[in-house]
Amino acid sequence: MESVMERGVRSVVAIEAHPDDVELGCMGTLLKLRARGARVTIVSITAGDQGAAHDPDADHAAVAEVRAAEATAAAERMGGEFVSLDGPDGYLFDASALRDALSAVIRRAGADLVFAPPPADYQSDHIAASEIAFHAVFTSALPQFPIAGAALERTPVLYYYDAIMGLEFEPTLFVDITDQVEEKKALARLHASQMANMKAIGGWDLVEEIEIVGRYRGLQSGTRYAEAFRPCLRWPRVRALREFPE
Ligand SMILES: [Zn+2]
Q1: What confidence score (pLDDT) does residue 53 get?
Q2: What's the pTM?
Q3: Residues, CB within 5 angstroms of ligand 1 (ion)
Q4: 240: which DSSP letter?
Q5: How far is the CA of 103 from the centre of ligand 1 (A)?
């Protein structure tokens, strides 16, 4: 049985504002796609250099370095690649250079599917990352833009993954990640600095969020654990299915 998104996906690019967002939003689905042979590229738009609420005296460059190492370890363990565009954490705005850099990664990956943060989320970097992803997906298939790499033949399909805590996000697609949830938690634990940071910011850690939101989405959709998505319904980021899924 395969879900709509697993049909013929050869290369998926998962975009995040900070190194670890993808671990919460769509890592279970990425594990499934990877197991089916898809190439996985995880792109953080910022360096995550403000991610030290648990240690306010930490040097920002050092925080960025730790986070890149954590995200790289997680990506390598699941058979993917981690890329950071090193944008400014906490002050991310839509900018042409970031759009083009992201589009170049999408081109290099030969993506047919892109995951991005939802347009409404808890933190402004996530909102900006969603907007940047929206543009970059489009220009990845437009040869007239001055972007590195050959333009893709087709615009990748764009799906938004769940918001933090599932707030202001009404899913239209659920992917069963019951068999992947333990590995998803293990990958999140590799972000040791962020396990501590989220505890300091909100009193919860990444694994608790994965457990509770994953179980909630599973309960909504008739399974144990699920991840939730919405398609971006703006041309040309939509693709017809060859047949009805499952
Ligand atoms: Zn984030």
Answers
A1: 84
A2: 0.96
A3: 17-18, 21
A4: -
A5: 20
